[in-house]
Amino acid sequence: MLAELSVCLAAFEVIKQTCAAGKDIISCGEQAAKYFDNKSQIQRKVNAGGTLKHTNDYEEFAALQRLQKMEMEWKEVLIYEGDPGAYNAFLQFQADCRRRREAAEKAELAKRIARQKKLVDIFQAFFVAIFGITGLVIAITVLVWMFF
């Protein structure tokens, strides 16, 4: 979780400097995407009950509070120093990032399920073939014993 938090902090600093220099949020889209992806990972890990045995609840809480504070600061920068509608564009960008992330996760899950189904089909075909061959060998053995 510390690695994700440090990526969020670095991305936030780049975005803050970019906005302070008078550029708009679009010019730092890659950093914003990194921020949102890592923030999502942190939230997912906290919701899952932590990542490591030695992490404690306070550390997770502090990380989320720090991210919330950064977003409030980001909101102020966008509202007061950005173009009109920059904060609304930011919210739209954040929603788009979340949708892309969820779509990628669903695609990965579908790919994993398809791979598992393919493996099950291969094992079923293998066992059907083995049992078929075994049955054929037994039938031939019985026929040989009956007629000879």
List keywords for this structure.
4 helices, 148 residues, elongated, mainly alpha
Description:
The structure is a single chain. Helix content is 84%, strand content 0%. The chain is mainly alpha-helical and 148 residues long. It has helices spanning 2-20, 29-47, 57-81, 86-147. The chain starts with a helix and ends with a helix. The protein has four helices and no strands. It has one domain. The model has no long low-confidence stretch (mean pLDDT 82).
* Fraction of helical residues: over 70%
Broad structural category: mainly alpha
Number of domains: 1
Q: What series of H and E elements makes up the topology?
A: HHHH
**Main β sheet profile:** none
Q: What is the number of E strands?
A: 0
Shape field: elongated
Overall average residue pLDDT: 82
- Sheet-strand content, in percent, reads under 5%
Cα-atom Rg, whole angstroms? 28 Å
Low-confidence runs (pLDDT<50, min 5 residues)?
none
**Gap between N and C termini:** 75 Å
* Tally of separate helices: 4
